[in-house]
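[Target chain]
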Amino acid sequence: MSTPHLITASDLRELGDDPKLRIVDATVHLRFGDGAPQIESGRESYLAGHIPGATFIDQLVALSDPDGEAPFAVVSSDDFGAVVGDAGIGDDSRVVVYDTENGIWATRLWWHFGLEGFDEIAVLDGGLQAWVDAGFPIDRGESGYPPADFTARRRPERIESTDEVIADVDDDSVLLINALDRDAFAGGHIPGSVNVPFGELVDERGRLKDVPALREIFDAVGALDAGVRPVTYCGGGIAATAAAFALSAVGRDDAAVYDGSMNAWTSDPARPLEKS
């Protein structure tokens, strides 16, 4: 892999019958229209077509804590280990994750695995569309792997709570990075934040930009300064993981994600917002 944690469709194809390989469709559908966003499990689209052998992990149903501070709050380490173990992922597995959307659901699962201490995971660059564009076959219906034992070892430094972000606002050693689009950022953001829209981190095909381009983007907002620790956020903790993923590509493996993001921050109207 030319970029850590990123794999091309051709490279994935060459892995062939590696017995440790586990391919995961992480798709969730998020639709915007009149009213509140519509969120749907990606299971039906997985059944309609997926990379041969791939299993499906339902992040919306199985990996979101309904009692968390925001809709997509992470589940406990024990629950995460049980879900991915049931999906056939063990401590010695080699995981490739993808989605059929814009990559942010794949990076969300990539980040969640990293949060639980597992690093043998890569994101398929360009998602399922890149696989199809390469002329490779797809399967339909259910696929899967035998259950395995997965040991979750949470890294608390990879995740921020609202209380921690409140403190971060006044901490010059923390750089808050908002990954929403520029209009959303201008409409209201956590004080002191900089804006790196996740859509500007990929090209027109949805593939991650090269390292020099990413370094230029992050350097422009001070995210490459060794004296600061990046904390990414967005609306609900999903696009924030795309920013964290891109940061890892330029060597910033120390980024944390504000899991509750703006959903949690704005739940208390007393918390301040900046507009620009």
Notes: Residues 104-115 form the longest helix (12 residues). The mean pLDDT is 95. The CA atoms of residues 117 and 153 lie 5 Å apart.
